[in-house]
């Protein structure tokens, strides 16, 4: 019972951290502001997450769990292009999460950022997953002649790049429609 209560509290803290990071960015977010949001002292928060970096990793892991339907990244073995389009639609309904992820991704490219290793490993894994998705859909060659390995970084870049454009101009960028258009390009001319 105590363990379940502790996990519930950790989840509450992670959700508050998502909000604070979305509002202020990682560097502008403090443990004190997250603690205040959940009614804890900073010392109380440190009982659950001993460092700001530990909380950051928990936020990133939680975001990935949401994207894979509550499972692990291994659940992504079942991705198909149509399910990726559904994920883009889902992301369009949760701007705060997308904003947090995008802010952290942008900040992580700086030297010494605590999320750099997470994103480096995540992108290597995502490129592998996208290669598998493309291979399952097209075999060894896409209609364009590209291999799944060549197209996987492009697919990943389009997904994340659309998120940035949508966050900056949601009234001008229909992220799900733009992604469906990209899938049309991948699939090649209609026969």
List the helices and strands and how they pair.
Elements: H1 2-28, H2 31-37, H3 42-48, H4 52-67, H5 81-91, H6 95-108, H7 116-138, H8 148-168, H9 175-187
Helix pairs in contact: 1-2, 1-4, 1-6, 2-3, 5-9, 6-8, 7-8, 8-9
Please supply descriptive tags for the structure shown above:
single chain, 191 residues, mainly alpha, Arc Repressor Mutant, subunit A, 2 domains, 73% helix, elongated, transcription, BetI_C
Can you tell me about this structure?
This protein has 191 residues and is mainly α. The protein has two domains: 1-62, Arc Repressor Mutant, subunit A; 79-190, no CATH class. Helix content is 73%, strand content 0%. It has helices at 2-28, 31-37, 42-48, 52-67, 81-91, 95-108, 116-138, 148-168, 175-187. The longest helix is centred in the first third of the chain and has 27 residues, at 2-28.
Q: Concise description?
A:
With 191 residues, the chain is mainly alpha-helical. The chain is built from 9 helices and no strands. The chain folds into 2 domains: 1-62, Arc Repressor Mutant, subunit A; 79-190, no CATH class.
